Every structure is written in C-alpha cells, then in structure tokens.
Amino acid sequence: MYKKYKDATHPAYVQAWQRQAKFLIKKAKKEFEFKLAKKITGQEIFFFAYARSKSRSKVKVGAIEDSQGELHSESKVKAEMLNDFFSTVFTREDAKSAPVLKPLCDAKLVDIEVSVDIIIKKLSSLKEDKAAGDD
Q1: Continuous segment of H or E residues that includes residue 71
Q2: To 5 degrees, how large is the angle CA 115–CA 117–CA 120?
Q3: Could you give the number of structural domains in the chain?
Q4: How does residue 42 score in pLDDT terms, banded at 50, 70 and 90?
Q5: What pTM, to 2 d.p., does this model score?
Q6: Residues 6+ apart with CB under 8 A from 53
Q7: Residue 57: DSSP 8-state
Q8: Cβ contacts of residue 3 below 8 Å, gap of 6+?
Q9: Structural domain harbouring 29
Q10: Phi, psi of 64, rounded to the nearest 5 degrees
C-alpha cells in the first residue's frame, strides 16, 4: 500500500493533486480579481485590459483596399479610409427645408399657480407601494 501511496502515477494520487491544484488556481484568481477591483479607481486601464482579455471575440479590422486596388494595413490609413466612407452616408440638411408644424389651437397657457402647500398635499397623497406611471 505504501508503494501505491508514493507512486506519483497512481490515479488516486494524480486526482488528489489535480483537485488541490484547481483549488489553488481558483483561490489565486479570486485574489487577483479582488486586488484588481481595489485598484480600479486610479488605474482603470488594468481593469479594462483584464476584461478585454476575457472577451471571447477578438474583432480587428483587417487590411482595407482603396479605390486603386492597393491594400492598406496601417491603423491611421484605415481609420481615414473608414471615416471617408462613412461620412458619405450622412448629409447635412437645411433648416429652411424642414417642415413647420401648425399649432392645433391658438390658446396658450399663461398663468400657472403652484404653491408649496399644493405640492406637499400631492406628494403626501401618493401611495408608497405603487410604482410610478409612464407620465
């Protein structure tokens, strides 16, 4: 039995070490994340780098072909080409050509009387267990 106990290739021995290793890895990960959360106020870059590393998608813009058929992979050139492309979609409209809505009636609200007593009365009549409405 002692030979089996000392045998590093025995399945029970391997399983025990794997269990302990998993526990230690989880503990170290929790401690790291706790320290990261404590440092977030002054050093946000570390948190966002960690969050980005845990992201499953690693989306990057590949090389972009210009109108002459040349491929560009430099970040600045790609940004300028994408900006030029997307700026063609948006147009500036003249405010003069916008339609003007006609008022439904000519009456205007001129005098509104609001006092502290009216507000307190309305607020005290609200039911605490009811949710606020859409209005």
Answers
A1: strand 71-72
A2: 115
A3: 1
A4: confident
A5: 0.35
A6: none
A7: -
A8: none
A9: 2-54
A10: -115, 140
90 inside domain: no
**What single string gives the DSSP state of each residue in 73-121?**
--HHHHHHHHHHHHHTT--PPPGGGS--PPPS-S---------HHHHHH
In this structure, the strands spanning 71-72 and 64-65 are: antiparallel
Residue 12 forms part of a structural domain: yes
Judged against a pLDDT cut of 90, whether residue 26 lies above it is answered with: yes
- Give yes or no for a contact between 61 and 77, defined as CB atoms under 8 angstroms apart: no
Query: Is 31 among the domain residues?
Result: yes
Please say whether the beta carbons of 72 and 78 come within 8 A. Answer: yes
> What element of type H or E holds 6?
helix 2-6
Residue 39 lies in a domain: yes
